[in-house]
């Protein structure tokens, strides 16, 4: 695997390097059954950035875009990691399952999954499973413990789950002009009405007793919403990841595989991979 020389340049990509965004696949929300057995929100995929990374001329860099975690009737499934060369982002951690499954803690990951509901001892999963600095994601939240309890929200790229209210997924990272990525999925709610919202950056909405949520947005790394309600059993799937390269247009070689989307803004070119491929510097 080609090495990436990590050099932080004050002028970013304009100084001859490349800026990178690597987002792993988000996890699915927790599953279960019954009004008082709600699943936690899925953790967002790990989200990593570099500034002014020097790419070696003539070297082909492998890009891997991780899949989102598949829907689950128990603890949410983790997503898959994404990478650009040696720069790796860790998969999101699955949302904790409803108490009926007997396994209600959120899983650790790039961002941690939220805790399952109706269990006073359930915990959210820890983020930054790759132990990176800066961190790649944050922790999942715990359930709220009230009579109309939310399960915990999944962690996002810039904040813990539940930061913006019980059950809410943590928000993702707004990167350059390319959008927001890595939002945590919302935990389910055990009462009627609209469920909790996922974090900005593709986090899925959680179920409520009488309304269905949804999964993480494709190619956002968003976590899926948790399952809840008497007739629901399955947590929502996580969103797949993404890799974006920003480079001075004068330095862009155009030698790519994997059919990335290529756009130009001012003097820069953005190369967005929504599936795996290569870039030759």
Question: What do you see in this structure?
Answer:
This protein has no helices and twelve strands. Helices cover 0% and strands 19% of the residues. The protein is mainly beta. A hairpin with a 2-residue loop joins strand 4 (82-84) and strand 5. The strands form three sheets. A five-stranded antiparallel sheet has the order 2-1-8-11-10, with no helix packed on it. Strands 5-4-3-12-9 form a five-stranded antiparallel sheet, with no helix packed on it. It has a two-stranded antiparallel sheet with strand order 6-7. It has strands spanning 18-23, 47-53, 60-64, 82-84, 87-89, 173-174, 180-181, 242-248, 256-257, 261-265, 268-273, 277-280. The model is unreliable at 1-12 (pLDDT under 50).
The helix count comes to 0
Q: What is the helix content?
A: under 10%
Inertia-based shape: elongated
Q: Structural class, judged by helices and strands?
A: mainly beta
Low-confidence stretches: 1-12
What's the arrangement of secondary structure elements?
Layout: E1 18-23, E2 47-53, E3 60-64, E4 82-84, E5 87-89, E6 173-174, E7 180-181, E8 242-248, E9 256-257, E10 261-265, E11 268-273, E12 277-280
Antiparallel strand pairs: 1-2, 1-8, 3-4, 3-12, 4-5, 6-7, 8-11, 9-12, 10-11
Descriptive labels:
mainly beta, five-stranded antiparallel β-sheet, 19% strand, elongated
Brief description of this entry?
With 281 residues, the protein is mostly beta strands. The chain is 0% helix and 19% strand.
